[in-house]
Amino acid sequence: MSGAADREAVFPTRQSLGLMKAKLKGAETGHSLLKRKSEALTKRFREITRRIDEAKRKMGRVMQIASLSLAEVTYAVGGNIGYQIQESAKSARFRIRAKQENVSGVLLPAFESYLTEGNNDFAMTGLGKGGQQVQRCRETYARAVEALVELASLQTAFVILDEVIKVVNRRVNAIEHVIIPRTENTIKYINSELDELDREEFYRLKKVANKKQRDNAALDAEMKQKREDAAERDQENQAPEVDNTGPSDILGAEEDEDVIF
Amino acid sequence: MASQADYKDRQFLAVIGDEDSVTGLLLAGIGHVTAAPDSQKNFLVVDNKTDNAAIEAAFERFTTQRKDIGIVLINQHVAERIRHRVDTYTAAFPAVLEIPSKDHPYDPEKDSVLRRVRRLFGE
């Protein structure tokens, strides 16, 4: 943190000092808010990752059961029904719907599965034999797909949250490590410049005061001189001889008369 | 985030997988074929003879071109064949989900999302 380099380009005035102080305050408020947001999101994120882990394991089990029931179907029908099913698939009965959930300002999607009524592409499947197994297999797979849909919404939320948390953390760090120090530096710079100006001003005033005092003193001296000169001149004019007698020496210049009681 | 804008009309699932997985999921009722002129299917059966280019093309079609698919299910061993594509796919919509198949048990180590989870927690 070099004090001179890392600051904003402002003129060191009181107005920009006020602006910078407001900015610093705003940055601190924003920083604490964003930090809290990031914490809330991270909490949610951890919860989601935990649930993804669980859901993935559950998916493994569910898919295993589903495969088993499909094997049952193949056995019961007595041949591969894959081709027939692929050909007769026309319109999706099992569909998904996306809705949104708001987690501290972030919209997280959640998938929801629903069955459309009335269309059944596989009415003829297993008509000859194995119809019951086909039915059971369909139910099993429907449950499996439900688990998959749940997992997919968790995963989507995971991806979005991951991205958002990165952005928020980047902002928090930018405010903490760039904006706040820079604003503080600017404030420091402005303060030091203002102090410098103050000192200069004080020194200048002192200089001025000194000069005035000197001038006054000179003027006073001159006036005094003038006044004394004038007084002298007056005395000379009025009583020039008094000056000779002057104040008499009372201690020993003349003999005092003896005092007789 | 532009990906959140177009989530409304995503109502289908798509499958890329071996015959058994696709059959089972179709039985559950996720199969959909669009209207007559181009009649696109939302599933692809992959076997040993299918080449990787076809799988990639299907993945591309389901993830970027079609706007009505919300979830793409892909068998893990199929995902393994186009691993670079699956790993570089990071968009939220549609969600790509790796599922186990009958012959290939599920391996959490290979899953692109689970690997990201692990990396984030520094394991």
3D structure, described in words:
The complex is a heterodimer of chains A (261) and B (123). In chain A, strands 1-2 form a two-stranded antiparallel sheet. In chain A, strand 1 (94-103) and strand 2 form a beta hairpin. Chain A has 261 residues and is mostly helical. In chain A, helix 1 (14-77) packs antiparallel against helix 3. Chain A is built from four helices and two strands; from the N terminus they run H-H-E-E-H-H. Chain A is rod-shaped. Chain A starts with 13 loop residues before the first helix and ends in a 16-residue tail after the last helix. Chain B is α/β, with parallel strands linked by helices and 123 residues long. Helix content of chain B is 37%, strand content 17%. Chain B is built from five helices and four strands, in the order βαβαβααβα. Chain B has a four-stranded parallel sheet, sandwiched between helices. In chain B, helix 1 (19-28) links the parallel strand 1 and strand 2. Classes of the chains: A mainly alpha (261), B alpha/beta (123).
Class from secondary-structure proportions of chain A = mainly alpha
* Backbone CA Rg of chain A: 52 Å
Q: What is the spatial order of strands in the main beta sheet of chain B?
A: 2-1-3-4
Main β-sheet of chain A, in a few words?
Answer: 2 strands, antiparallel
Assembly classification: heterodimer
Count of runs of 4 or more consecutive helical residues of chain A: 4
* Topology pattern of chain B, helix = H, strand = E: EHEHEHHEH
Total helix count of chain B? 5
User: CA-to-CA gap between the ends of chain B?
Assistant: 30 Å
What's the Cα radius of gyration of chain B? 15 Å
The helical percent of chain A reads: over 70%
Shape summary of chain B: globular
Low-confidence stretches of chain A: none
Helix content of chain B: 25-40%
Alpha carbon gap, first and last residue of chain A: 103 Å
Can you write the helix and strand succession of chain A as a string? HHEEHH
What general form of chain A does the structure show? rod-shaped
